[in-house]
What we know:
DNA-binding; homodimer; globular
Amino acid sequence: xxxxRMDLAARSNEKKRRLEESSDGLLLKDGNGSLEALGLLxxxxxxxxxxxxxxxxxxxxxxxxxxxxxDGEERPREHPFIVTEPGEPAxxxxxxxxxxxxxxxxxxxxxxxxxxxxKEKGEKCPSKVTNEVFRHAKxxxxxxxxxPKMRDYVHCYALHCLDVETSNNxxxxxxxxxxxxxxxxxxxxxxxxxxxxxxxxxxxxxxxRNDKLRIWYVPTKLRQLxxxxxxxxxx
Amino acid sequence: xxxxRMDLAARSNEKKRRLEESSDGLLLKDGNGSLEALGLLxxxxxxxxxxxxxxxxxxxxxxxxxxxxxDGEERPREHPFIVTEPGEPAxxxxxxxxxxxxxxxxxxxxxxxxxxxxKEKGEKCPSKVTNEVFRHAKxxxxxxxxxPKMRDYVHCYALHCLDVETSNNxxxxxxxxxxxxxxxxxxxxxxxxxxxxxxxxxxxxxxxRNDKLRIWYVPTKLRQLxxxxxxxxxx
DNA sequence: AACCCGGGCGACCATCGGACGCTGGTGCC
DNA sequence: GGCACCAGCGTCCGATGGTCGCCCGGGTT
Lengths: 235, 235
């Protein structure tokens, strides 16, 4: 039980640290500085309660390398994404961003299938891309689709849906600068925050009003960035 | 692990049995017979896979009677509900159905509070009555509200919202007959199934179109009853 | 061939929606 | 007072949404 408390404290600290880091990386694009204020995140967590000094044990993850008599087929990892311009095919063992965005459309199709099946069986019918949808996709032959991957880039797809122009320019810019996918992925947050501001800071509404986006959960980090910007300038 | 399989099998069987029982009890009102067919539920579960004979161990529930140095205040159980006509106050140590329905309205208020708080904090905002709402209600002084209670009667409240006339008549009828709350609670399903049929069997749509109901999850049992009726006569 | 960079996605976690039956309150005799 | 009925709600459970960093693919030297 004491052990459990420590685990939680460690997790919470780590979350805070990560967000701070990413905010540093994000400064360059926005021009108006920002987000070191993310230390504020502490406020979001009303737990307080002192302590939090200890930096607990490393959790051990991953399976012990395919071990013993495996039954399930071992899928090779997908090729990494690279920043490509619209229409540009990826060179080498890489995938381009058009393909990434297509994956989101595919998930939309899989969701529709799951919805039809659920309705037919009189079961409750998801309105968003859920675990069930990812499971269905995998079983139906799209083994290259998985939850963490899709989650990692939702906001990139959101920008693509809400403002293709800006999205395309950003891709072009980051490609020319030779930035990696991680940098582009981070950069996608800022135009979205601007869009949210123009929409009275209602990012959920932005998602819900768009046919393609409606089926995706608003990423936590995007929501937090919007909140922090709202608090900083304007309200 | 073998133990786990047995637990699951036992649970599943139990679920089936319960639904069958309730269907028997439900026949009386509808006039067109029904629902023994609930044995069909087996079809809903595509697991099949044989076995299912063993009727596993009793799970032990409940805390060991307030035991040792308790810290949390012990709340006395709420008075049971009795079937009352609209406007009729409950006699003795009982609560009436007007009060029951008022509890649902109160939950709606608590949901609104939770939504405002979430929006203010830039966190994701529930559109339904979630665990968080029950927690907020409890902490805010409505200790008499709890999840299982509200869940037990959602469909009764649904009938009240969607067709007060029918709901009121049912209350009057069951009161005069001297039926207990359980019987009335069961009886509430059938007018709802009829309403669903008139709405092309779309019970979710029925809930979603009603301002008061929209915030409540459609009860599994109601959804299943609709499905079974749809399969039996008509489609 | 050897190395290092970076990101794919397996696996974990808190919490959720959902369910059920044990306790114990209640009315009756 | 004693008893039998029955329903309130504590407590459990599988699955969900969300996350993080290990491991290894891939380009470069």
